[in-house]
């Protein structure tokens, strides 16, 4: 009886260990793009939107952020995940961490 219970527990733990790698969080680091800028004749309460664009990306835009222009200048930090390929089956096997934005789109909105 004890042997059968131990065997079942060991089998369950083995499956949990195998599948925990497949569904674990990415090991790739999060990087940051910092954009500093100045706007001449900025509108009152002007807002700058910064969007990251990646090569070969299915969607047109990636991460983005908004910041209010103060005194004609702005600074914004946009974090992004460097993981370019999902891990296959076991944790970090075949995982790539080389995702980088190719273009930064800066747009000014006035209110």
Give a structural overview.
With 111 residues, the protein is an alpha+beta fold. The protein has one domain (2-109). The protein has one helix and five strands; from the N terminus they run H-E-E-E-E-E. The protein has one helix at 2-22, and strands at residues 30-38, 47-53, 64-68, 73-81, 103-109. Strands 3-2-5 form a three-stranded antiparallel sheet, with no helix packed on it. Strands 1-4 form a two-stranded antiparallel sheet. The longest helix is centred in the first third of the chain and has 21 residues, at 2-22. The chain is elongated. The N and C termini lie far apart (74 Å).
Widest β-sheet, arrangement of strands? 3-2-5
Largest sheet: 3 strands, antiparallel
Structural class: alpha+beta
Alpha-carbon Rg, integer: 23 Å
Uncertain regions: pLDDT < 50 for 5+ in a row? 12-24
What count of helical segments does DSSP give?
1
Annotation keywords:
elongated; alpha+beta; 111 residues; two-stranded antiparallel sheet; single chain; 1 helix; 3-stranded antiparallel β-sheet
Quick recap of the structure?
With 111 residues, the chain is of the alpha+beta class.
Please describe the topology of this protein.
Elements: H1 2-22, E1 30-38, E2 47-53, E3 64-68, E4 73-81, E5 103-109
Antiparallel strand pairs: 1-4, 2-3, 2-5
